[in-house]
Structure formats: structure tokens, C-alpha cells
Give the backbone structure.
Amino acid sequence: MAEDTEYKKLPIEERCVHKLWKARVDGYEEAAKIFRELDDEKSPEWSKYAGLIKKMVVDSNALAQEKGLEAALIFVENSSLAGRTVGDVMSGIVQKCIAAPKAKTKELAVQVTLMYVEIEKHEAVVEELVKGMDHKNPKIVAACVAATTQAMREFGSKVIGVKQFIKKLAPLMADRDKAVRDETKQLAVESYRWIGAVMKTHIASLPQVTVKELEDEFDKVKGDRAEPTRYLKSQQEKQAKIADEAAGGAEDTYDENISPPSRKSIKKYRKQVRKEKSIFCSPKCAYPSLLDEDGEAGAEDVDPMDLIDPVDILSKMPKDFYDKLDEKKWTLRKESLDALEKLLTENPKLEAGEYGALVSALKKVITKDSNVVLVALAGKCLAMLAKGLSKRFSTYATACVPALLEKFKEKKPNVVNALREAMDAIYSSTTLEAQQEHIVEALTNKNPSVKSETALFLARALCRTQPTALNKKLIKLLTTSLVKTLNESDPTVRDSSAEALGTLMKLVSEKTLSPLLLDVDALKMAKIKECHDKAEIKIKVAAPKKEARPATAPTTKTAAVISKPTGGSTEPKAVTRPATSGARKTLKKPGIGATGGAPAATNKTTSSKGISERELTPEEIQEKADALLSADILNGLVDSNWKNRLAAMEQLLSQIPSYDAQQPGLSQTLVRTISGRKPGLKEMNFQVLKLKLDAIRCVAENFPLTAVTVDHVVNEITEKLADAKNGGAASEALSALSEATKLEHVVSKVLSFALDQKSPKVQAEAFNWINKAIVEFGFKVQPKILIEDVRKGVQSTNPTVRGAAIQLVGTMTMYMGNALMLFFDGEKPALKSQILAEFNKNLGEKPPRPVRGVVNSANFEDANEDEDGNGGASPEPMNLADLLPRVDISSQITESLLKEMSDKDWKTRNEGLTKLQVIISEAKLIKPTIGDLAPALAHRLLDSNAKIAQTALSICEQLSTAMGAGCRSHVRVLFPGFLHALGDNKSFVRAAGLNCMNSFGEQGGYKEFFENEMIADALKSGSPLLKAELWAWLAEKMPLLPPKSISKEELTSMVPHLYAHICDRNAEVRKNANEAVLAVMIHLGYEAMARALDKQKPASKKDILAALEKARPNLPVKPLPKGKQQAPIPEETKKVVRSGGGGAAAQKQIPTKTANAAGDKATTTAASRKKDEDVDTSPLLAVNNIKNQRLIDEQKMRVLKWTFTTPREEFTDLLRDQMTTANVNKALMANMFHDDFRYHLKVIEQLSEDLPNNRKALICNLDLILKWLTLRFYDTNPSVLIKGLDYLAQVFQMLVEMEYMMAENEGSSFVPHLLLKIGDPKDAVRNGVRRVLRQINLLYPFTKVFSYVMEGLKSKNARQRTECLDELTFLIENYGLGICQPSQQVALKEIARQISDRDNSVRNAALNCIVMAYFLAGEKIYKLIGQLSEKDLSMLDERIKRAKKTRKPAVPAEMPPGLKPPAQVVQQDSIEIEDAVGNGCDELPPPEEEGFPGMGILNWSISKFFLLIKRVYQKLFISIQ
């Protein structure tokens, strides 16, 4: 019996692998108990058992296997390491457990399998189950199929993808074992429940009897709603959090104390849901928002194409396909197309490849062939090709769409149907925004059929478009074009346009579209609404993204927050949140937020936003003027005596401010009465004219004004600019009119009138006024129109006009920059030099701040926000290249030129390319419409002749510069050619390819480069040269791109190739791939890249993980959002904790604000508390003497000693209370103890800035800062760790310069924790720790440091042991063997033990350390290290022999005679800081010697003496070295 229980004395890990089955059973049971008790899923305990889980599930004893599965289930459910074991454990389950004889074993095996799925390892699980379906044992096959069925039933098809096992169904249904067939039938039925009719296409190859059976089973479940009954861990955590928040008002149903983020709380949540199932009835109630977010599982549409493998049809096409297609006989051409159609029908999904030639050939048939049968057949083939390539067809979409739209002029129904099918198929690979130019052009075509079919295509396309894909500019463009076709005479065109508009209205809402349809008459509007009601959106419209917090918080929630503050005195108030929507509403509703006397301003704002006004007839003006003005004024205005006219104007001017601004037509009546009653503004008396101009200005400044009124007077006022006496008044009147309406409108009217005048004075003064207006208003004018008129002024023969225009150019330079000179390149040299002189005066000058029209311009931006979506943001810099006149060279890209470029003779091809270069050079700036040039150039980029390829690349670079931003539309066609050039053997071709890529990126942006997996395809099949060049380019460019500018799918497709190339055989590929890791990680994130590691082979995982870890610290830290730069300051509580700060001392040094603070606090409202605590203007660290009391408290065990393996909450609370007592800045503390690491970075940044100016305060609080940094050592974020080590280096450097000596509690609470990071895998961290340790040796007794480093040798981390041994070598080398603690023999024996370590680096470090000791102690060292094994001794002897040969003679660094070992230094135990100058510490006697007077002074003197000896010795040794 004793023998039976002997195994119980063994550790649990050894019992789990014991040869006795009873011992293993006992070990598994004990392990299961430990697993249940562990609350932390990242506890180090899990790592002890991670390697044993596979052995547990494949145990040869049935009972032990059962217990092992139970333990494995608990491990998988609770451990964060479970994901690493999935491959081995699932393989064992499939082989040994899933078809075991015992029912419980099978049940547990399935539960473990499902638990792996729950922790999001479903791909690996299904992979192993599918492997099991090929097993020879039919029981295992049936069990694997059954497990797959159950997993799909519980988790749904989104988790258990059908594609992974769909091909297995047909052979399994024909298996000879009945159980296998039955289980497979169940799997097929379950798959049908989730993906619907798609399943039927995959069972068509089965015998008819089997098909009939399955279809009968399908019919039984046809109406069933498929819903998941179990969810992934991430979904559970998300839903637990949502439900926990939602349960705030339902305390009888949920316990609000559940904390969802922890694993334990998730379990509680699950139990609570199960317990109350009678209330909720279904999982959908338990997880309400999950189903809403993911959509109804039963209604999920699975694309049949996703279940088909792609095929390369290019290699299967007939060799004479293109030759036959050029034959004159139509039957031969039809044979060629029939062969293609057959290929496309048999292979509906196509592999990526170069289909440019095929698309061009089909397009040529559609556009050029006269046989309608062939046109229809080519259209059908093009549609199938577009469907087969799906998104990859987007490369060719831009070239095909205009040709197909143009061909809609064909009236044959079979052709039209084929073209419709082709357009619809192509649309799935492109967007309306990409094709907007072609669509608008087709809607203006002369042929009604083209217009009608284009509008119908738009209607069909809109039914399959997400509203988010339509920006407001695109909506406006499409609506404007369709409204024009809505007024066509052809009824078919009208009906088609109404259908398109109705569908658009259905998609974007009537509210959005109605403002653009104001000019549509009622009858047509009724037709649009009828189409709106009939329209059916065929896709599921994605819900808008939920914001973290609504713009306006609900009243009840706000009230709850105010009534129950939870340390949230900094919770943002609703009224302080900037809400742009609120601002817009205020502007749109007159009277809201207006101050006194603002009705006129409000109306003016309204008019500036485009409120139109009807032009009144002269009779109406006369009638309104009679009612408004007195007879004396009306008669006086037309009196022949100028004095009477002057008196009438004076009387009118005094009455204008008193008129009611709400009176309709007031401004038009006044202005037209003043200007229209003879003599009007042709007044000859300068005094009367001045009053009239002042009156018009007064009207504009006080009442709403429209462009209709302005147009009546602007020409006459412009003419008066040349008046010597009233030019100033005319200028002010024009400025007032501009401020009341739009500057752009007034400027255009002034220029058009002035340039038509013969008087040079009018023209010159018009330019001068515009110059002044731009400075006052800002550049609120369309540059293109202004530049054209300014060029006319610059070219004027009159020097005054020319000078005024040139001066205006100088002002425009401040706003438009260097590129403005492009518009004047063609001028004569003399004139150009004058322009250049003025240009250089203002170049680089900052434009003055606008002083007029500021409110109106803001309103104008708000009004434009509806169109552009830019809001009130600062205007983007003008792209002057868009203002330059561009040439359309499409007419010069003839068929003969394209044939010449594709000729078999390379000389002819070169001549064609040369001609093309000349065309582009002469045009300088061209439009993006270049016909079929892009596909032709793409072929030349792949030319076998390197010189031709280089020429083609230089032409592409030339094209990008000439097109500007428009070049982006050709990226999809040309970019694969650029990538191909990177793999060329010729360096000049590779350089040209890189230049092209950079040029296209600079001109049109890099977004289009990362589409359609073009980069992933190049990396997949490219040469080593291509891979190396491309990764180097990506490493350079990707970090500069804005976040989220590259789609996640595109990045994900690149990651497998990145990982493969990190382990590539080619050194250059490996190097560049490693450099690109950071670039990809910036956009994709570390977590996503780490998850992708699961699919890599174990052999390569190590290198890839090292590359990821190396790049991770260099990730840019996401900045804290504006308004959240400060963490919430928690409300003070009355909790009493022994903080060791010395209550009495604190009370002496920190005066309270009032004696009755408690009473005041009770009566203070939440709002006032927040106001008081939001801003803490006190210093970050306060100067005080509390540190001495903290040390005494720690010595007398009044507080916790700062020793732990993992920081617990009580340590954090202790430090927080100590900081509070030490009067550390509240805002700094709030950031220090926030969960978000970005606040920690901010703390380090603040402390670093404070360090030079607040040294004394730092020394007073040094122990607190060091303790806080030790907590950060246990965080996972590398940025905080590296920044913290940099800050520590600055702190210790300052302390070394001040000759400060660290107190005992400062060293003991910091150094042991610092040594934990010396074994960090990241070089930057290890180097930082080593640097800090070197500095600590100058501030803290090195004997103590030696003892702590010796403790580090007990670590299980081999890298930490290695680094500790290296540090010991350094200490022994620099301070001699006397440093060894507790004695030389004990220390060296422990070091010598490491020579037998399994890790090679540890062995080498230990040998180096002993060798260093040998050089100091000689042969005596063998006695000190004690007995060694023969192998270790021989290694040591060999190392000593080699070291003797390479060692340079040096003076032995032994301790000076008579000097006691540093261990004898009387360590300071407490300090009291009075002055930070000097070493910053005055000694108090140690507690145990308090009764002996004078001992404190003696100890202090001894400490200072040894510190001085230490400094001298170090300097001496360094000088010798």
C-alpha cells in the first residue's frame, strides 16, 4: 500500500507523466483543481502544464484519459496559453478520443473541441477535423463529421466556414459505411440551413437517389431560422459588457457588480443567462445586439463563388484564339468566341492573371464588329469574365465602361441584353465614383438609347450600392445630370431618368435629394416618387457606425451622472462638448442664440446662404417706394436743383436704420429707388453722389441683400471707382455688397464690366479694389476665373492697368504660392520680369487674417458642408494644377499609333513610343482621358526588350506629371507593370520602375496601389529581386501614409508573404522584409499580425515572432484624443490606509484650506467640485521631509514591504496614498494610475520636462517615483518601458552629478524589479536596464547590487540568467572579488553551477565570469568554486587557456590594502532632507541605535568616507583601463 501512495509525494507535473496510471489520474485531478482555482488567465502557473495537455488527452489508460480530458477542458476554457496547444491537442483528440469506446470520453472530446472553437481557434479545429475525415477508421470519420455538424449548429457558418469541408461531402456521401453517410447527410442538411440553395450546386454530382433524399431533407428545414446558440469569447466579452451597462435599470434581473472584462465575470454572466433562461427564452435575448450587428444568420447570403476554386483559363485557351478573332469570315470569329464561352461557363471562378489582351480583344469585337451575333456573344463573354475575376476586374473596368455605354446605341434586343449583363457584372468590380465621368458623358450623348440605357444602368447599380459609397458631390453630379435627361423629349429617356432618380432617392433618403430637385415640376416629381415607391434596394444597407457617445447626451443619463458621481469630477459636461451640428442648426434658425439688435444680421446670414429673391417690376418698385418713403424724399430725389437732391438724400440716409428688416423687398426697393430715379448713380454733383453711395452701403450693412439687387447697381458703382472724389465711397459700397452676398459674385461682375470699359482708370481701380477685398475678406474667389481676367490686365498696354494687375498677382501669391507663376510662363521676358519682381516680394509671406465677412464666410462653409462634408474646417491648399488648362490627347491616340506600339519589330515599337513622348511633351498638361493608351502601355511595360520597357516606364512617369491627380484612374492598369519592372535583372529598369511608382504616388496618392491584391500577387510570384525591392519600397512609404488609408483585407493578404520572406533564403529579401514589418504593423496592428502567426510552421514562428517583437516598441503611440489629455481625477475618499507618510508630519506641511472643509464638501455641488478639481496648478512634485517618515514606517513594518512577483491592488493603493500624503499633483496622479498606457507616457513626459527645474522635489519623492516605475515594469506596453528607462537614465545621471547616495528603501524597492527586465527579449530594453544598473553602482553600495544580481540567477528565464552573469562579470572586473556576497566562496560556487546549464549562452556567461575571477585570484579560484564535474572542469580549463592568450596585461583590480570590503559600509537607513544641494541627505540615527547619542553622526561620517574612497577607486581603475 505504501508503494501505491508513494507517487503523491511527487510534484503534480511529474505525477502527470508518471508511468503508473493511478499516479497520472491523481496528477490530472490535482491539475484540474489548480486550474479551477486560478483566476488570472495569464498566471505563470499555466505555463507549467501547457506542454502536458496533449499527453493528457492521448493517455493509454481509459480512466486516465477521461480525467485528462476533464483537466484539458478546464485548461482550454481558462488559460490564455490554450491557443498554442490547439494543433497538438486536436490531433490527439481526433486520433484517440473522438471515437473512443467510452461515451463520456467522446462527449468530453467534443466539448474540448467546441471550447477551442469558442476561444477563436476554429480554423485549426476544422482543419484537424477535415484531416480526420480522411482516416481509414470509419468510426473516426463519422465522429469528425458529427463534431463538425455540432460546431456549425452551435456557432453558425460565419465561424465554421462551409468552404473548408464542402468538397468532402460528395465522397463521404458515397462512403460504404452507413454511419459515415448518415452523419454526412446531417452535415449537409445543417449546411443547407445556413447557406441555403448554394448547397444544391455541390450535391449535383451525387447519384440521383441521394440527391432526392437530400432535397427531401432540405425541404423539411427550408423555413427554419438558423441562429447560433453559442458565441466566441470575444463576442461574449463584448455582449457581457453591453448587457452589464444595459442592466443598470434592471437590478432584479442582473447583478450590476458583474465586471465583464475579466474571465471570471464572463463565467458569472453565462451562468446568470442560463439561470434566467425562463425570462429571456432564447440566446437572442441574452445577446440582443450581437445578432443585430452580425445580421440574421439564417438570412446570410453566401456567395457560391466563395465555395469554388479559381482556375487559370489563359493557359487553356486555344492557341489560335487571337488569330481567329481577326479573321474576316464571321464564322471563324464565332468559333473563337464559342471556345471562350465554353471555357468561361465550365470555370466560373478565374485565377488572377494578365487578362488585358483578352479584354481588349473582346472590347474590340463589341465596338468594331459589324455582326450583331458576335457583339452579343462578346458581351456575354465579357460579363462572365468580369464575374469570374470579381474585384480583380477593376483593372479593366475603366477601359470597358465607356465602350459599352456607347454601344447601347445598338437596338437589337439580344445585343442590348448582353451589354446590360456585362455592365452589371463589371459594376461589381468598380464604383460609381470611379466611373462618374463616363456615366455623365453618356447621359449627354446625342443618342436617346444611350441616355436611356445609361439611366437604367444607374438605377440597377444604385440598387446594389451602399449609401456610404455616395458622397454628396457625387449625388449632386448624378442628380443634376439626370434632371437634364428628365426633361428630354423622348419618353423612354424620361422614364429611365425618373427610375434612376427614384432609386437614388430610396437609397439616400428623400430629405437628402429633395433640395436638388427644386426645379422639377410637380408632374415629373410625382413620377419620381412613384419610382421611389417601386424601387427595391437589393443589398442589406450597413447601419451607420455607432459613436462612443451621442452628440447630445440623454437628460436622464446626465442627471444620473450628476446625482451619483463616481470619482468623475472631470466627466465632460454636455454643454461644453463642441457640436458642429448644433452650430449649423443655430445658423439655420433665425433668432436662436442671437443677441440684441441682431435681426438684420440674422437675415443677412440667411441671404448669404443663397435665399433667392424675385426681381420686382418697375411698377412694384414705384408702389413700394410710395408706401415706404415720404413724398418730400421721392420728389427731392428727382429735383433738378442739386441742393434739394442733397437734402432728400440726407433725410433718407437718416431714416434707413429705422426701417423694419422683416419687410419683404425692402433692400431691393431702397437700392433701386436710389439708383433708378434719375439722375440715379449718374449724379453729376459729387456731394449727392457720395450720399447715394453711402445709402447703398448702409442698406447692405443693415438689411438682407440678394444677388438680384446687387446686379442692378454693381456696374454703375464699378464705374464710379474711377471718380477722383467718390472712388473711396464706391469701393466701400462694393465691399458692403460683397459682405452681404458673396465676394466671388461681386468680383466676377466688377471684372467683367471693368474689362469691357475703354477707360483704363476704371480697369486699374477695379484691380485695386479686388486687391484690397482679397486682403480684407481672404481668398474667397474661384482662382481659375480670377486668373484669366488678371492675365488680361497684365497684358494691357496701359501701364497703370498693368501695374495694378501685377500688384494683384503679388497679393494672390500669398494665398496660392509658387505654382502661380505657371500661369505667366508664356509672357514676354520684360513683362515676366516685372511679374517675377512683385511675385518675389510676397512669396512665402503669411496672408493677413480676414477682417470682413468672417461670420458670413463661416456660414458659407457650413452651408457648403452639406455638399462637401468638410464642415467648418480650414480650407485645404489649392491644387493649382487643376486650374491649368489641360489638353485632351485622346484624339491623337489613334489605332495606327497603338498598332505601331505593339508591332513585332522592336524598332517600330520604339518609334511608336517616341511619337507618344512627343505628343505628351507638346501638350504639357493633359486630361486623364487617353482612350486605350493605358492597356497598350501596360503591355510595353512587360516588353522583353529592356530599353523598350525603360522607355515605357519613362512615358508613364511623364504621364503622371502631365495628368496630375487624374493619373490615379490608370493605376490599376499600369501598376502591375511597375511591380514587374522591380524584378528585372537590369538595374536601370528597376530604378525606372521605382521612379514611376513614386511619381504616381506623389501625383495621385498611394491608395489605389493597395487595391485588388496587386502587391500580394507580385510578392507571391515575383523574383527575389522584386521581393527585395518591393519590401524596401513598402518599408519607406507605408509609414508615411495616413492611418486607415489601406484596407485591412489588402494588408491581411500581404502578411503571409511577409512572414514567408522573413525566413527567405535570399539575404536581401530577409533584410528588407524585416524592415517592412514595422510599416505593415503601423497600419494593421500588432495583435492582428500575431494572430496570423497561427498559420505558420513551427520552425519559422520563432524568427517571425522575434521580428514582430523587435518592431513593436517602434510603433507610433496613438495620441490621446483632444479634450482627454488629462485622466479623470478621482474623488477623495475617507478610506484610512497606513500610507507611511506620517500623518502628523503631513498635517504640519500641508495646510488645509478651511477648518470646516468636511462641511463645505458636503454642501458643494457636483458641478463646483468638478470645476475645482479640473485644474491643479500645484507643482508636479512637492518639496517636503516626509520621505524620512516613510523609511521609518517601512523599517518598523507599519506598511507593506515593496516586494512582490506580481503587483497586487494593495501595493497600488499604498503608493497612491503615499503620493497623496506627499502632496503629489492630483492631475499627475490621475494619469499615473489610469489604465491607458498613453497617460503613463504623458506622465513620463511631464516628469522629464520637470526634472531640470525641480531637482530638490524629485529627491524628496525619489522613492515614490521609483516605486511607480517598478509597477510599469510589469505592464506589457514596450513604449512605456523604454521611455521609463530613458527617464531613469536622466534621473540617475543627475543624481550622480549631485553625488547623491540612495537610501536603503530606494534601492531595495527598485533594483530587484529592475533586474526582472534585464532578460527582456527586446534589445532596447536590455540596453536601457544595463545603462541604469551602471549608474546605480555609483549611487548605491555595489555589494547590495551584487546580492540582487545573484538572486537573478534563480530565474527560469535563460536570457535573464545570461545577462545577470554578464553583470556579475562586470562587477567583479571593476570592484574585485571583495564585492562577492555573502562570501566569495558561496557566490563563486553559485556562479560555477551555471556552467552545467542547458542553455549555451548561460554556460558561456558563467565561464566568462569565473575566468574573470581567475585573473583576479589565480589558482585559488579552483578552491573557491568547489567540486565541478569533469566535463564542466575541462570546459573551464579550456576557456582559461584561451583567455590567457588573448588577455592584455593589466594591473589587477584588487581592493586597496587596509580598505574594508564595501559590505562593511554602514548603510544609511533613514534620511531627512533639508537642502537638495550636495548629496541631498542628512543622516538620522538608525532605529536600533537611538539610545546612543552621537552614533548617527558617526555612521554618517563612515558612510561619507567610504563613498569618497569608492569614487577615488573607480576613477583610478578607469584611468588604468
The radius of gyration is 42 Å. The first helix runs from residue 2 to 5. The mean pLDDT is 78. The first strand starts at residue 1471 and ends at 1472.
